[in-house]
Amino acid sequence: MELENLEKSIAKLESIDSSSEYAYEKALLAFISIKQLPVLIYTLPAGTFLFRTRTHNAEVFFNSIVDINLPPSQLIKDFARCNRPFQSVFYASENRPASFMELAEYWAETKDFGQTLNITIGRWELLNPIDLILVTSPNPEDRISEFDKYHGTALDGFLEEQQGEAREAATRFFSYMFSKYRKPAKDDLLTYIITTAYSNLAILHGNNNVHGIYYPSVPFGQQGVNIAINQEFATEINLRLTHAVKNTFRIDENEHGKHSFTETNRIMTEKIDLENKTITWE
């Protein structure tokens, strides 16, 4: 990978007009022009538990596993951190608080003080190991989160294997991608276009062995970790729902005029019928 070519590609990415109908395709072409796209792979072991949150407005219960699993592709209308429109991705987090915080900003924008919020969080067990693309910083001073402190050593090892200009270019590339994955992307469509384009190309570079992206939660102060798993892997062969929890929250206004969420009810069930794909609540 040549440094000059990389800088030109980054300049192309930064110059994209996100309102263009071909913005995503331009991002793909910019990444493809880099050549020898560097990727860092981490294997998440079987037995890992993941948490996925689903919002619902009425005080009803989701009685089907399908309701809290992958959303239908046709319902995906917008870009997110790792998906384009009409691309269904299984977003999950390493723990319940991180899963909750990923949606808190959305709730604050769409809910009024005094309203009630209902969510269902599923706990999923990873039945098979999964290879994931991770992006961390090559610069130790940027490694604030536990995620970056831990995985930064793996990146150091990867960079040490590179020589001369290739090492300098790889360092620049990971530094650039780190800035995009750690950047709050609210009202910043271009950031989502860039991270999604890289996510999809990096997964394709994995030769059908890589199935997702592993990255810290920006809304949770980078202390929680998110996993974006592609549709190909997110099946009952690889993921098993073990628990479901329905939470009800009262939305109040705090002393700073912001939204606060007070839990008023919690119901948990382990009665998951995998054969019939049903959830039974007591």
Task: Describe this protein with a few key phrases.
282 residues; alpha+beta; 5-stranded mixed beta sheet; 4-stranded antiparallel beta sheet; 11 strands; globular
Task: Write structural notes for this entry.
It is a single chain. The model has no long low-confidence stretch (mean pLDDT 90). Strands 1-5-6-7-3 form a 5-stranded mixed β-sheet. Strands 2-4-8-9 form a 4-stranded antiparallel β-sheet, covered by helices on one side. The chain has helices at 3-14, 23-34, 96-110, 146-160, 164-181, 189-205; strands at 40-44, 49-56, 89-93, 116-126, 130-134, 210-216, 225-230, 239-253, 259-269, 272-273, 278-279. The protein is 32% helix and 27% strand. Helix 1 (3-14) packs antiparallel against helix 2 (23-34) and helix 1 (3-14) runs parallel beside helix 5. The protein starts with a helix and ends with a strand. The longest helix has 18 residues, at 164-181. It has 6 helices and 11 strands. The chain has 282 residues and is of the alpha+beta class.
Describe what is shown at a glance:
Helix content is 32%, strand content 27%. It has 282 residues and is of the alpha+beta class.
